TrEMBL record:
PROSITE patterns: HTH_MERR_2. Residues 4-73 form the HTH merR-type domain. It comes from the Bacteria. Keywords: DNA-binding, Repressor, Transcription, Transcription regulation. InterPro entries: DNA-bd_dom_put_sf (IPR009061), MerR-type_HTH_dom (IPR000551), MerR_fam (IPR047057). One of its GO terms (molecular function) is DNA binding. This is MerR family transcriptional regulator. SMART domains: HTH_MERR (SM00422).
């Protein structure tokens, strides 16, 4: 009874394809124990362990040439450092995926909320929000690509964040994004009149803002602090021709 196994048996044992084993052979990583008289490639326990090591190193992300060098030249210290580096890279990737999971959940939840609240005025309690100022946008000036150049940084994924247009009196709007710490502009906690809608251009935005002011005036709501227009550009995945906005302003007693 022979102790070696064929290439198809090895492939089945290690849950890989015969083609993959042949590829490792072509690259000089894994050679059969011998080739039988009928030209079958035969593999022993030594080749099983070799293939297990190759698959592990490939799982760690090493290219084939690095796998070959690792198996022939690396000592224990180099292997340990390689595994440590792979662990750190894996942890960073897990963090990236967790952040992506949170963002996807946020988009889905906000899309559900937007559908329920669109075209309806609501008074809602909002927690305090810190905003970081970007730049001023003069009245009657449309936002242009040049104004964004150099403004974003590695800490901000542009258009994955809510963009806040803050209107203080009759002056220009201030473009802001949310900050995790005090960053120059605070929207305090309190009750806010809110209105969510879709718009396709500056004219429609101005009409919506006038409607918002008229609604508050008709109901003698005392508004305080700046008028804030929030652009939720990521929600426009659901409507390519229009952007999603929320208007809000704090209200209180006279």
């Amino acid at each position: 009874m022979r102790n070696e196994i064929t290439i198809s048996e090895l492939a089945q044992l290690m849950n890989v394809s015969v083609h993959q084993i042949r590829y490792f052979e072509d690259k000089g990583l894994l050679l059969p124990a011998y080739i039988s008289g009928n030209q079958y490639r035969m593999y022993s326990m030594e080749q099983i362990y070799q293939l297990a090591h190759i698959l592990l190193l490939r799982k760690l992300g090493l290219p084939v040439q690095a796998v070959k060098a690792c198996m022939t030249d690396f000592g224990p210290d180099e292997i340990r450092q390689m595994l440590q580096t792979s662990l750190e890279n894996t942890q960073a990737e897990i963090l990236r995926l967790q952040q992506l999971q949170l963002f996807i959940g946020k988009v889905l939840q906000e899309h559900r909320d937007f559908g329920q609240e669109m075209e309806a005025y609501r008074v809602k309690w909002r927690e305090a929000v810190n905003l970081r100022r970007w730049f001023m946008l003069s009245p009657q000036t449309e936002l242009a690509a040049r104004q964004f150049a150099g403004k974003a940084g590695p800490e901000l994924n542009l258009f994955e964040a809510d963009i806040h247009y803050v209107f203080e009196g009759e002056g220009p709007a201030v473009l802001c994004t949310e900050a995790t710490e005090e960053a120059g502009l605070l929207l305090p906690a309190g009750e806010y009149l809110c209105f969510q809608f879709l718009a396709a251009g500056e004219d429609e935005l101005e009409q919506r803002m006038e409607q918002f002011s008229a609604y508050a005036a008709d109901r003698t709501l005392h508004r305080t602090g700046p008028l804030v227009l929030i652009e939720k550009s990521y929600l426009s995945l659901f409507s390519q021709d229009r952007l999603h906005y929320e208007l809000l302003q704090r209200i209180g007693t006279v």
